[in-house]
Design a protein that fits this description.
The structure holds two protein chains of two kinds. Chain A contains eleven helices and ten strands. Chain A is α+β, with helices and mostly antiparallel strands. Chain A folds into two domains: about 90 residues; about 240 residues, BirA Bifunctional Protein, domain 2 (2-Layer Sandwich), CATH 3.30.930. Classes of the chains: A alpha+beta, B alpha+beta. Chains A and B meet through helix 5, strand 1, strand 2, strand 3 and strand 4 of A and helix 7, helix 10, helix 12, helix 14 and strand 26 of B. The complex binds zinc ion (ZN).
Chain lengths: ~350, ~800
């Protein structure tokens, strides 16, 4: 009897190992461990054996059954996995179809984005951001900025006037906010003024509307050298860490001394030439790019706000005015200023 | 201002190339726009020739075959078309190989069968004047073969200088020479007006002419000299060359001299034919309003009462400081000349020139306000030239009608102030050297200086700070100025809360799928009508520009919607399937701004309120779909609720509760318009754009909103949220469906639920709408999700049911609603 049990065990074990599907395995389970199978029959009929054999045969049969159950379980697990694999392998997608579009994300306008970059650089240097009206009094746009009526410097900026009031205009620069800011806050004052400005001019580099960033810093002991350091910091924030700035004397009615400011070219590293020897197109071979006008705030301007604490013998400072589109054009190679206001999706979507 | 290099070098030779000089000028504050070359690009191949014979060409009536000695031993045959060429003339010759102006190389050529070994030049072929008719006849004393460049400058470099409005002195060549002297240190020649000519004519100028100035405040000085026996004719070649190079057309010797002296001194002059001034009387007076004058250019101008005229006894002869008239113009018959050098009020010249739309070389100088001293400088130089070049005789005396000259200015220049303003040291001896080279008088007072301003700079340098600029720019800012930063002190840089929230709003709309646009503030005055805005609405009365570039850009926008539609329509026309745009910008309303808070509720309003109200708005428009179609399914249409969802998501990002109620806007679908409010106050609109408005913009359909930024940002609590414990005692969730009459707004149902739910009801959200026959005619069912929670305990089923029963009771009592089972 014991040898028969061993025979069943080894026959069953071989069959289980050879089973190729879960169905076949289930058949083997019924055949070897089912109600009508031989091994369970042995166990059922154990009482019919002589008492001295009962323990031995019962033990062997039980061990064999347990062993077969384990073998069946292990084989079933491995068959499941391979069957799943073959099933998945048959379940194929065309992975080359386009992905389902996610909810589309929009784009920031390049001018707004550039404005933020400049604001952030200036905020980092301790400035607050002031904004003001675009339709402005002549007084703030010109007179209080040392452009008295009839002054030839007024012609430097061709101005839009408002029909209903001859003394009201579209601001030609963000500088009127210099005066409003100083009327509001005594020194020290450190503000930047972003916003739309208007000049009566239209071609590839002049738009009747564009954006400027004005900076004003007035306190005791601020020097032209401080202006240079501030502009160097800004230029590096906007155009790269290796930039240098160059100050050229110039004339603006509301600053004295006045300077125009060049930044070393970021494309040719100030050499004026590209690696292949050709002339750099961004700086036109000069190595320098003019980016803004600046200067020490003219004492006459401070004179208009003297009653608010701006005594030109005690405090002094600088101002600059930067064209935001100009920065964007340089940074991103936009050729025509007016493209910014076309709002063509094909352009908008180029900038995240 | 064009500066011919050879002329500049007559007064100051910088000892460097024009390009090097330009660099130096640019770095010291004089903008050099470009360097031109006038005449042939190179002097080689241009020589003096002697015409030995000039014979008729056998086969061409208009050509002559000349034998020309060009000094190299052989005689050359040159075919020439000029009618005046004749044997014995000394002429300018270009030999084969010479490069003509424009760069073309001259070659030997056969002209009607005769080989020509060069070219006899007319004036315009050397870019000296415009004469092309005759050959340029040179002085017979010149030897054949002399390089032409020894006679007149060839390949003349000309610096084109942009003169800033403060530097009227650089509108004169001698002023530029002084500037070159100052910034290079090269020697400066004597002032060209230093010597006056001796009068040799008979009598006295007062016997020939008189000047009456009726408006001395507008004409601070009027000088006049008389010349007799003037021989009018062409100017000598050198003068023609200089004028041409400087951009002035040579006319005749008298007029050329006035232009030449103006270019040299910045002081404009005017020459009259004295015989054409009745009685020699000139009167300077204000025009009568409406008076008409014809200027030299043939144009008739109507004047106002502030325009100043120079008149003779009978009629105006010119508009003062701007342009002469035809009445007493110098002509070939002229033999007696009255030469005017006057000084005018610059502001008035500028005003008149703008009013008449008439600018001239003279007005461009006078409007910068010249010093009266310049008039006599110009008289001296012009007198000498008239005597030398026109054989004229100066009549003794000068008419000089002048107010007292402005007093000389002496300014302190404190060493401490120089250092304090610039942040760099400039040694006293350097300061003195720079100022003296610029023509200032300097006296040392310890560490400081006392500086006297020359007449040329009288209106430019009026304060110590102007002197600091002068020494700084000559010293050099680029190489010497240190790089420092202002002390930080107590300041902290940051954006204001509204500014930060605005960025958040921009980012939210971007993340919600909208592209940001920046639009023209201008629009056309017809936009309001296209938006169906009635004429009496403030938005139909835009701020108009007095001098727009075009009618399309002549008004300031009163809505963002117009701008959004413009951009949407353009993109739709280009074939865009999905257009979702937003703009954050101002509109301009012709009404007073709010009394407090400035235009953007900004922190720096200043003293004077803004002229008009410029509210900042947030607007969005969507056309087509918000989420695009794909192979997996159709697009999500951009309809009212899609855009409302966007507005709600924006509000969610700003932590603002927006109210929506049925509203009315002329440009929106009357049944699909929501009035948007914040905290009960109106804050804009949202809706479907009216089909007629869509048609006007040629877009199929669109939804849009336009919200006031100020109330939205003011109500925002974003960034100020406090923590709430929602985990210890979890919420109970219940859904209810209630059947109400169709016309009851969903928001009213929700409000009723919220009110009845009391403290325990934390939120109620409408998540389904059902309308069907089984509900009966005119009924609808709304499903709401309720969230109930207490901060201090987990709610029991009894508590939750109690709240639910209260809600059901309220819905029944207030709205006639019944629970749908
Ligand atoms: Zn470059």
């Amino acid at each position: 009897m014991i040898s028969r049990i061993a025979e069943i065990r080894s026959e069953a074990a071989a069959a289980i190992a050879a089973a190729g599907s879960s169905e076949e395995l289930e058949g083997l389970r019924v055949r070897y461990l089912g109600r009508k199978a031989e091994l369970p029959g042995v166990l059922r009929k154990i009482s019919e054996l002589p008492p001295e054999e009962r323990g031995k045969v019962g033990g062997a049969a039980n061990r064999a059954r347990k062993e077969l159950e384990e073998l069946l379980g292990a084989r079933a697990e491995s068959l499941d996995a391979s069957e799943l694999d073959s099933k998945l392998a048959g379940d194929r997608l065309d992975v080359t179809l386009p992905g389902a579009p996610p909810h589309p994300v929009g784009h920031a306008h390049l001018v707004a984005r550039t404005q933020r970059t400049i604001e952030d650089a200036m905020v980092g240097m301790g400035y607050t951001v002031a904004e003001g009206p675009e339709i402005e009094h002549d007084y703030y746009n010109f007179t209080a900025l040392n452009h008295p009526p009839g002054h030839p410097a007024r012609q430097l900026q061709d101005t839009f006037y408002v029909q209903s009031h001859p003394e009201v205009l579209l601001r030609t620069h963000t500088s009127p906010m210099q005066v409003r800011a100083m009327e509001t806050q005594p020194p020290p004052i450190f503000v930047v003024v972003p916003g739309k400005v208007y000049r009566r001019d239209s071609d590839a580099t002049h738009s009747p509307m564009f954006h400027q960033m004005e900076a004003l810093a007035i306190a005791e002991g601020i020097t032209l050298a401080d202006l240079k350091g501030t502009l160097l910091t800004l230029a590096r924030a906007l155009f790269g860490e290796t930039r240098e700035v160059r100050l050229r004397p110039h004339y603006f009615p509301f600053t004295e001394p006045s300077v125009e400011v060049d930044v070393s070219c970021f494309q040719c590293e100030g050499t004026g030439a590209l690696p292949d020897g050709s002339r750099c197109n961004i700086c036109k071979g000069q190595g320098w790019i003019e980016i803004l006008g600046a200067g020490m705030v003219d004492p006459n301007v401070l004179g208009f706000v003297e009653q608010y604490g701006y005594d030109a013998e005690r405090v002094q400072g600088f101002a600059y005015g930067l064209g935001i589109e100009r920065v964007a054009m340089l940074r991103h190679g936009v050729p025509d200023l007016r493209r910014f206001f076309d709002n063509d999706l094909r352009m908008l979507e180029q900038f995240a | 201002m064009r500066v011919p290099y050879s002329w500049l070098r007559e007064y100051c030779d910088p000892g460097m190339t024009p390009a090097e000089l330009a660099d130096r000028l640019v770095m010291t504050g004089t903008e050099v726009e470009r360097i031109d070359v006038v005449g042939p690009p190179r002097p080689e191949g241009f020589v003096v020739g002697k015409v030995e014979a000039a014979e008729q060409h056998p086969d061409a009536d208009r050509l002559r075959v000349c034998s020309v000695d060009v000094g190299d031993g052989a005689t050359r045959t040159i075919v020439c078309g000029a009618p005046n060429v004749a044997a014995g003339q000394t002429v300018a010759v270009a030999l084969p190989g010479a490069r003509m102006p424009g760069g073309e190389k001259l070659r030997k050529a056969k002209l009607r069968g005769v080989a020509s070994e060069g070219m006899i030049l007319a004036a315009d072929e050397l870019e000296v004047g415009e004469d092309h008719e005759g050959t340029l006849v040179l002085d017979d004393a010149l030897l054949a073969g002399t390089p032409l460049t020894a006679v007149i400058p060839l390949a003349e470099p000309v610096l084109e200088i942009e003169v800033t409005p403060n530097r009227s002195d650089c509108f004169g060549l001698f002023g530029v020479a002084r500037e070159v002297h100052a910034v290079t240190g090269a020697a400066l020649g004597p002032e060209p007006w230093a010597e006056d000519v001796v009068a040799v004519g008979a009598g006295e100028v007062g016997e020939l002419a008189s000047v009456t100035v009726e408006v001395p405040e507008l004409c601070p000085r009027f000088t006049a000299r008389a010349f007799v026996e003037v021989e009018l004719g062409p100017s000598p070649l050198w003068l023609q060359q200089r004028l041409s190079a400087a951009g002035q057309r040579p006319i005749n010797n008298v007029v050329d001299i006035t232009n030449y002296v103006m270019l040299l001194t910045a002081q404009p002059l005017h020459a009259y034919d004295l015989d054409r001034i009745p009685g020699g009387e000139l009167i300077v007076r204000a025009a009568t309003a409406g008076e008409k004058v014809t200027t030299l250019d043939g144009a008739e101008h109507t004047l106002d009462a502030e325009t100043v005229l120079i008149c003779d006894r009978e009629q105006p002869t010119g508009i003062a400081g701007i342009m002469g008239g035809q009445v007493s113009e110098v002509s070939p018959e002229t033999t007696r000349v009255l030469l005017e050098a006057a000084n005018w009020n610059g502001t008035n010249i500028l005003r008149t020139s703008r009013l008449l739309g008439l600018r001239s070389e003279a007005s461009a100088r006078f409007e910068k306000q010249l010093h009266p001293e310049l008039a006599m400088r110009a008289q001296r130089i012009a007198s000498r030239l008239l005597v030398e070049l026109c054989d004229a005789k100066l009549v003794p005396g000068t008419i000089d009608v002048a107010a007292s000259p402005p007093p000389a200015i002496t300014l302190p220049l404190r060493a401490a102030r120089v250092r304090g303003l610039l942040g760099m040291e400039i040694a006293q001896e350097d300061q003195i050297a720079y100022l003296e080279r610029l023509g200032f008088g300097v006296a040392v007072e310890g560490d400081d200086l006392a500086v006297t301003v020359p007449p040329d700079r009288h209106h430019d340098v009026t304060r110590e700070v102007d002197l600091i600029e002068e020494v700084a720019r000559v010293h050099g800012l680029d190489e010497h100025l240190p790089t420092t930063l202002p002390a930080v002190g107590e300041r902290v840089g940051r954006l204001s809360r509204p500014q930060r929230l605005r960025r958040r709003a921009e980012d939210s709309l971007r993340d919600l799928g909208f592209d940001q646009i920046v639009s023209w503030s201008f629009t056309d005055p017809g936009e309001a009508e296209r938006l169906r805005i009635p004429a009496d609405d403030l938005r139909a009365k835009p701020v108009r520009l007095a001098n727009p570039l075009s009618e399309e850009q002549s008004a300031m926008r009163t809505t963002l919607l117009g701008s959004l539609l413009d951009s949407a329509a353009r993109n739709a026309a280009r074939g865009a399937q999905r257009v979702a745009l937003y703009e954050l910008g101002s509109v301009y309303l012709e009404e007073p701004p709010p009394a407090a808070g400035g235009p953007l509720a900004g922190d720096f309003p200043g003293e004077r309120a803004a002229p008009v109200r410029e509210p900042l708005r947030i607007g969005a428009i969507a056309l087509g779909s918000l989420a695009p179609a794909s192979w997996r399914g159709a697009a999500v249409p951009a309809d009212f609720f899609a855009l409302k969802g966007v507005a709600e998501a924006l509000a969610g990002q700003l932590r603002v509760e927006l109210g929506f109620a049925p509203g009315e806007q002329p440009f929106l679908h009357p049944g699909r318009t929501a009035a948007v409010s914040v905290g009960g106050a109106a804050a804009g609109w949202l809706g479907e754009v009216h089909p007629l408005v869509c048609r006007a913009w040629d877009v199929p359909a669109a939804v849009a909103f336009e919200l006031e930024a100020a109330p939205l940002l003011a109500a925002s609590t974003a960034g100020e949220e406090g923590y709430e414990d929602v985990t210890t005692f979890p919420a109970a969730l219940r859904d209810i469906a209630v059947v109400v009459a169709e016309e009851v707004p969903a928001e009213r149902v929700r409000a009723t639920v919220l009110a009845a739910g009391g403290e325990l009801l934390r939120s109620a959200r409408v998540f389904d709408l059902y309308e069907g026959e089984q509900l009966g005619e005119g009924r609808k069912s709304l499903a709401l999700g309720l969230e109930l929670r207490a901060p201090d305990r987990t709610l029991t089923d009894d508590e939750v049911d109690g709240v639910r029963d209260a809600i059901v009771a309220a819905l029944g009592a207030e709205l006639g609603g019944q629970l749908r089972e």
